[in-house]
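note to self — DONT lose this again. spent like an hour looking for the file last time. sequence + predicted structure for the chain T wanted, 280 res
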Amino acid sequence: MSILVSLSARLSITIFGTHDCTPDQMQEDNGKEEPIRWYVKQEGKLLGPFSSSAVRRSLLLGQVGLNDMISTDAESWRPLVSVAEVVPPQLRRAGHGDAAQGHTPAAPAKEKRPFLSLLLSIVLMVALIGYGLYRGPSPESAAPDCAAPPGPDVNWRNCRLEGIRVPSADLRRADMYSALLRGAGLSGAILTDANLEYADLSGADLSYALLGGAKMKGANLQNADLTNADLSAADLSFADLRGAAPGGVVVGGARLDHAIWFDGGKCLPGSVGTCVKSAP
């Protein structure tokens, strides 16, 4: 009789498709785990709950960090990096195992570039300083020797040589920057490529002197004798030539910007080889 009842019950279940769960089935259903929900604490701010996949996505988007805290109950917290389930595989690979130890992945290489640039600049600066020390002081920075005899490359910089007599002397490339040479006798002297910037040559005898390529910016040549002197390609910008004797002087290619000409007229900027004066 019991066998018939059991068969009848099973037949009823098969036909109608609706039945109550057996105790075994209820136990099986109750054994299924609910998805884990995570809370994230970021700078004191509570976020969540999130699924594991949502946390992984937020990590990849940079919305949360590996050093933020994570919890399933918002009470017991641990570093997010220590929970492998929520750390994307690519972040674990990028960190070469650092994620499992609680470290964030290595900083991008571009963050190291400023340091490398600074290091390179320091090395270059040290190299330049060392090169300068190796070469020694430049000629311009060397101490002048006002007692030195006339000769090529002599350093008479800022020297008081008023009235000196050195006719036909070879003074090519001599440094006489801002020297006092008032009334000096330099007739026929070779002064090519010499530095006479801001020198006082007023009343000096420069007749037949060779001054090609000389630097004479701002030089005082008032009342100097420039008869047959060669000033070709010299820099005479801002020089004062008032009252100088110009007979036969050669100024081809000479810069005359802002120079004061023999007659007192002012040369316009761009004057080369000839003094272009402004209209009266």
